[in-house]
């Protein structure tokens, strides 16, 4: 006799505000939540920790950077790898009513390209190559929790940005053309920069990853990124410094070293040039 698991039905009407068909949360997954299916579209992002994601009859190991697009009717549940509170499995969830997602895609020029993704019947899994999706969903979660002017418009814009990011990830995963291969190699270069921003990365090393010559790499990188390699690398480092200044009380010299700058005077000058204020003023929220 087959053993059936209890699967709970979740309804969007229990999550959505009456005039807003969008819900965003940050959940610490436990062993208490039962497997469930729902009548809405869900985008889940693993923000911290590790564990497993049970989707229908399949089980996926998950870690930071895993993304799942879950259509209507698919049963699923996340499970942490450990019950220890020091190592939580944290998942960001963006939920939207299917008809609202379709209207949103159709409302913007070119948005019809997103419709096949929205209509897909199975779970789709992606990887966040260099943290872009993480930043988008963190921003969306912040907007959802606050009551700033234009909140509804900002939330719809944020959901559209997530869908567009998934659409592009889907194209990269499925593409076989030379353009798709080149795009994937460029994404690997960006992932390397974002993952090793504190190190000195040479154009020769990155060009080898891209599979092209150094001179061609400089030209193509500037075209794809909109700026030279050095400027892009600096921007990644300074953005990380901004995050550390906002979220920690570490010394500025420690933060400078953590993002790859041992010369504190150079770091201070570069930070001010990029942000219009010193690191100390940025941390205090003072004008430049």
UniProtKB/TrEMBL annotation:
Family annotation (Gene3D superfamilies): Homeodomain-like, Jelly Rolls
PROSITE patterns for this protein: HTH_ARAC_FAMILY_1, HTH_ARAC_FAMILY_2
Cited SUPFAM superfamilies: Homeodomain-like, Regulatory protein AraC
Keyword annotations: Activator, Cytoplasm, DNA-binding, Transcription, Transcription regulation
Domain HTH araC/xylS-type: 187-285
Pfam families recorded: AraC_binding, HTH_18
Superkingdom of origin organism: Bacteria
Database matches in InterPro entries: AraC-bd, AraC_XylS_family_regulators, Homeodomain-like_sf, HTH-like, HTH_AraC, HTH_AraC-typ_CS, RmlC-like_jellyroll, Tscrpt_reg_AraC-type_HTH
Protein name (database record): Helix-turn-helix transcriptional regulator
UniProt organism field: Paenibacillus artemisiicola
């Amino acid at each position: 006799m087959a053993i059936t698991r209890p699967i709970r039905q979740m309804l969007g009407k229990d999550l959505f505000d009456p005039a807003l068909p969008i819900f965003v949360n940050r959940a610490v997954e436990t062993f208490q939540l039962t497997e469930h299916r729902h009548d809405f579209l869900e985008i889940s992002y693993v923000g911290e920790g590790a564990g497993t994601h049970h989707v229908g009859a399949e089980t996926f190991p998950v870690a930071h950077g895993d993304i799942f697009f879950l259509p209507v009717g698919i049963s699923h549940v996340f499970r942490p790898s450990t019950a220890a509170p020091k190592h939580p499995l944290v998942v960001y969830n963006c939920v939207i009513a299917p008809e609202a997602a379709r209207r949103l895609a159709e409302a913007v020029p070119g948005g019809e390209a997103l419709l096949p993704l929205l209509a897909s019947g199975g779970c789709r899994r992606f990887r966040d190559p260099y943290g872009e999706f993480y930043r988008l969903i963190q921003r969306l979660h912040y907007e959802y929790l606050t009551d700033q002017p234009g909140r509804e418009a900002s939330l719809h814009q944020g959901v559209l940005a997530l869908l567009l990011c998934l659409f592009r990830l889907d194209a990269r995963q499925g593409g076989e053309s030379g353009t798709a291969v080149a795009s994937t190699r460029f994404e690997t270069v960006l992932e390397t920069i974002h993952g090793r921003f504190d190190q000195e990365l040479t154009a020769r090393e990155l060009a080898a990853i891209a599979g092209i010559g150094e001179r061609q790499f400089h030209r193509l990188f500037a075209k794809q990124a909109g700026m030279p390699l050095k400027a892009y690398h600096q921007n990644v480092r300074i953005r990380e410094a901004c995050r550390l200044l906002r979220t920690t009380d570490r010394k500025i010299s420690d933060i400078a070293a953590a993002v790859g700058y041992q010369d504190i005077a150079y770091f201070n000058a570069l930070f001010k040039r990029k942000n219009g204020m010193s690191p100390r003023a940025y941390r205090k929220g003072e004008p430049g």
